[in-house]
């Protein structure tokens, strides 16, 4: 009898855990945010006893930064075959990186003008921002004397550079005419893929703990500051959404320059935009984006390359978020960002966009990279974490829109790559990426980017 009772109890426990895992993360974060705010306001300062739960969440985020940079950058860069590094690849890279740099500048500019976070302070946040080095030293330090030392020191830019170089080398190994070198390259790539899956599994676990961390962080902040933090968070949300609307207007202006039909474009793009908003995954939206590209008349020779690449390196919405949120963190920390720090934010944001994982919430880790590199305190990131899901939806919709804009423009500039959109395609549109429904990188789901992951 006792054995049966124990069995039922154990089954019930597993059932509750499974229900928690299956419950959408966005709702868990929302519940954690609201519950934390209510608990903090109701209990007041004694709620600070749960502060270690929030600190644990911050430590988990920091723990993921370097492994995520290394594996996703190597995987993302090495996924581009040497034969694809031609005209289409060059145009795509230039477009994606240029618009990302412009987008993060929009986020910085709007945030500096609105000044979200001004007047708010984090309880117990006495960490002063480190004095940033000169611009010349920052640029020179991108190339590490010792990549392992850069890894230990947490030098984000240097680790990124080393990972990009390794990814490029792996690309040429896999395309080598020497059978031995090519086989070794393929073997190393499988190892990188395994490392990516391992890191993503850890991220998945951290995100399951995120609602608890957000609850504790918000509760402590509300218990100490009261309702003073609500207005700054609302300002940050307004800045991010306003910046994304401005970025979409920029896309529209660019398409007008190329005489692309705006109405037809957005009629085709509305499905991936909505899918990206709901799923918060650029890479998970790839099949929908591919069908939209076909509706626009883009041939597979272009979109099968530019869309997966865009899911990896084109993070315009995330760049706006990182720029605005970095100013938010600086304002709460009482630090006035210098020109060197602003330039560092742009540089880190653009480089980080290459390797941002294609999973919901990865933009928060990208923000962690930027805040760490600029020498700001990590504590205010807790506030941003509470509304990250809300911001993630808009930035993902912006990301997938930018992917389609680049794809349509590149197709127009390449002979024979743009057909009459009203003419039927000879192949089944369901096989949207490589003729089998599988993206070139293996089709793993997941915003912010894509690397080999199928992350905001």
Explain how this protein is built.
- By secondary structure, the chain is mostly helical.
- It has a single domain, classed as Orthogonal Bundle (Proton glutamate symport protein), CATH 1.10.3860.
- The chain has 17 helices and no strands.
- The radius of gyration is 22 Å and the shape is globular.
- The termini are far apart.
- Residues 417-431 have a biased composition (Basic and acidic residues).
Summarize the structure.
By secondary structure, the protein is mostly helical. The protein has 17 helices and no strands.
Helix content: over 70%
Share in β-strands: under 5%
Low-pLDDT segments, ≥5 res:
124-132, 425-456
CATH structural class: Mainly Alpha
Q: Do you know the CATH topology?
A: Proton glutamate symport protein
Give the count of structural domains. Answer: 1
Please write the string of helix (H) and strand (E) elements: HHHHHHHHHHHHHHHHH
- Write the CATH architecture name: Orthogonal Bundle
Could you say which structural class the secondary elements and strand pairing correspond to? mainly alpha
Which word captures the global form?
globular
Number-wise, the strands total 0
Structure annotation, total helices: 17
Radius of gyration: 22 Å
Q: What is the CA–CA distance across the termini?
A: 51 Å
What do the pLDDT scores average to? Answer: 77
Main beta-sheet strand count, sense and barrel state: none
Biased composition (Gly residues): 440-456
Keywords: Cell membrane, Membrane, Symport, Transmembrane, Transmembrane helix, Transport
Subcellular location: Cell membrane
GO molecular function: symporter activity
